[in-house]
Amino acid sequence: MESWWFGNGRPRYGSRMSILPGATKKSFAGRDLRHRTLDRYSFKLCDFRGVDLRGASLRGVSFAGCDLRDADLRDTDLSYARFSYVVTHDPEYGRTDVTGARWHGADLRGVTAKRVIGWPHGLSDPGVTSG
Q: Would you say 17 and 23 are in contact if contact means Cβ atoms under 8 Å apart?
């Protein structure tokens, strides 16, 4: 996967990723997305396994049915982000998975988590709601 708009901050005409702001069924696995601003982006059924999002601004982002296992979310601004699921034919498919994600220093004010796999129940931010 060659440099998308995430790579250098400018869109590349003819690049494989032209869906803005967000993506459906795209893989960002293992990518370095530190300090990116992705506020209010919507991601559906995307692969974020092992992605480095340290220090990123993800305010109001929607992760629906995304795989965030082992993602590095330290010091990210996730205020008012939504972690949810996508209704599919298989009740286990389409759920967001955050197993092993690192959260230290993340701003979780107003975060909503619905039917999320691996959600750390001990997250200390009082603004997190789950269902």
A: yes
